[in-house]
């Protein structure tokens, strides 16, 4: 029990440590990180307060992944593709599904039952974020990370950021793109940012425009794909 309490207290303490003043990045010297010198995955602006690019080490099956579960601390490692961090052993394990799909309301009830049985003291167990209709919300948390999911909870790859960066993360673009790909159709272009949100500009063919948070064009101004700066979105 002492071990569990210590983990919870440490998670809360590290979460409180993250404080990003508006000019914080001005005084940060960022190391030169590229695919050439990173023995892992380069995550743009993935460091503290989003100032610097970071190299994320890919952990193998059986590796310790405790650092991934520390809230408020930018992760410098993650379980490699098709592996997840087991919340009981804090090791990377292979799973049948990347994230379990199903009803969010049912998953939430399951988590709440586990919390109740353990008097609220469980390591790394996240309550899923649910819509009123029982579907999963677009953005979910796991440890120090936030990621995009489909309405059934299936993870949408390519959209994972530090937990403390996710305040404005809605994953609408990631979801729309995921649903379109599932139809088997091709041809439609999606302009998503790294949070899974719609980027300020979108394009249809070679014609680009400003777009809102749902991907709909704003205004009548159009520009060629090579002249996006002219849109001033």
What does this protein structure show overall?
By secondary structure, this protein is of the alpha+beta class. It has two domains: 2-177, Thyroglobulin type-1 (Invariant Chain, Chain I, Irregular), CATH 4.10.800; 200-231, no CATH class. The protein has three helices and eleven strands. The longest helix has 16 residues, at 2-17. The chain is globular. Mean pLDDT is 82; it is low at 1-17.
Secondary structure layout:
Layout: H1 2-17, E1 41-43, E2 54-59, E3 77-79, E4 83-85, E5 92-94, H2 104-117, E6 139-142, E7 145-149, E8 155-162, H3 172-183, E9 201-204, E10 207-211, E11 217-224
Parallel strand pairs: 2-3
Antiparallel strand pairs: 1-2, 4-5, 6-7, 7-8, 9-10, 10-11
Keywords: Disulfide bond, Signal
Domain Thyroglobulin type-1: 168-233
InterPro entries: Thyroglobulin_1, Thyroglobulin_1_sf
Order of helices and strands: HEEEEEHEEEHEEE
CATH class of the largest domain: Few Secondary Structures
**What best-fitting shape do the alpha-carbon axes yield?**
globular
The count of strands amounts to 11
Radius of gyration: 20 Å
Q: In the CATH classification, which architecture of the largest domain applies?
A: Irregular
Tell me the strand percentage band: 15-25%
| CATH topology term of the largest domain | Invariant Chain, Chain I
Oligomer: single chain
Protein name: Thyroglobulin type-1 domain-containing protein
Signal peptide: 1-16
Pfam families: Thyroglobulin_1 (PF00086)
InterPro entries: Thyroglobulin_1 (IPR000716), Thyroglobulin_1_sf (IPR036857)
């Amino acid at each position: 029990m002492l071990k569990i309490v210590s983990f919870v207290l440490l998670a809360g303490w590290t979460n409180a440590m993250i404080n990003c003043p508006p000019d914080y990045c001005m005084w940060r010297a960022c190391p030169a990180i590229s695919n050439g010198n990173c023995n892992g995955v380069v995550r743009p602006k993935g460091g503290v307060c989003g100032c610097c690019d970071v190299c994320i080490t890919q952990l193998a099956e059986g590796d310790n992944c405790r650092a991934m579960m520390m809230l408020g601390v930018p992760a410098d490692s993650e379980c490699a593709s098709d592996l997840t961090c087991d919340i009981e052993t804090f090791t990377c394990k292979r799973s049948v599904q990347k994230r379990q799909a199903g009803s969010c309301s049912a998953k939430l009830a399951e988590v709440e039952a586990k919390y109740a049985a353990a008097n609220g003291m469980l390591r790394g167990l996240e309550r899923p974020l649910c819509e009123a209709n029982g579907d999963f919300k677009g953005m979910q948390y796991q440890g120090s990370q936030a990621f995009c999911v489909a309405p059934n909870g299936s993870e949408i790859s390519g959209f994972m950021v530090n937990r403390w960066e996710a305040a404005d993360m809605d994953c609408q673009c990631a979801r729309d793109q995921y649903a379109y790909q599932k139809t088997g159709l091709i041809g439609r272009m999606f302009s998503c940012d790294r949070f899974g949100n719609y980027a300020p500009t979108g394009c249809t063919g070679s014609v680009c425009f400003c777009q809102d948070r749902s991907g709909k064009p704003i205004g009548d101004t159009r520009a060629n794909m090579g002249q996006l700066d002219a849109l001033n979105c």
